[in-house]
Here is the input.
Amino acid sequence: MIRRMKPAVIRKSVFLSVIFLTVAFGLSSLAAQENLGKGRINGTVVDENGNPVEGALILVESLQTTTKLEGKSDKKGHFAVAGMGTGMWRITASKSGYTSSSTEMYVRQLTTNPPITFTLKKVTGLAALTTDETSMKLFDEGNKLIEAGQYDAALKVFEEFMTKYPQIHQVRLNIGTCYLKKEELDKAEAEFKLVLEKTVEVYGDYKKDPAASLRALSGLGEIYLKRNDLDTARKYFTQALEISPEDEVAAYNVAEILFSHQNIDEAIRYYEMAIKIKKDWSKPYHKLGLAYLNKGDYEQALVNLRKYLEMDPNSPEAPQVKSIIEAVEKIKK
Here is the structure.
């Protein structure tokens, strides 16, 4: 005989079934969404010479979901990460001071996955600097100290920087600049010459690193101006411009150095060189006019100052230039 269940019992059974199905479905969806499971990967991280890289971050990312897992390499460069579901995963090995390396692989849960070997290349020189935020901040701090005239403090910062990145010889330009501003000319000269030596050692030619070579040669030129050795200064300035003969800024900067040391005729030559390279640049006309004014050549001073105003009438210096022109015109009368 078939017995009928009571309505309350039926309702309770249906309710429990619904709960069970809902929970089961939810767990199934969650597992699918997270793509977690029993999958395991392992491998080794080494450098270019095959030496183990300790402390490399191993980032494992599902290509099907947003799930991410992490691990670290040990002293022998070995790593292992577990918890992956079946499917495609991207594995990336990275460490500060090295280029990162990644691969994609199909991870299985029921069989052993093949080991992975990552080779990380050590980043050197200026490229290494850009990957190190702390050192970049240190470098910027040193430059700000130079701008503020705090040369001793700047030297400490750059020397600290050099202990970490001795291969970045370009930083010696900043050290040389500090010594130059402090009038410690022998030390400044040593730093600028070291930059040139390292440039040839690394690149084989000054022109392969024109920015650093230009600054070093210009710095040496300024040192010899301070020593009142115009012939040697001229030699270095000439070398500087041979590196960048079409660089109007380089010619202008040399002129500025010469003008600041009251070598007016030499300054005029380099201002005119800057204008010859780039005729539509107003700045050299302004300084060329002032240089002629210092020389007492009022006619040429007016020609260049007027040209400057014609080219850049709304510049911040325009009111002062107008006043100078008016004063010179009165003197000429």
Summary: The radius of gyration is 35 Å. The first strand starts at residue 36 and ends at 47.
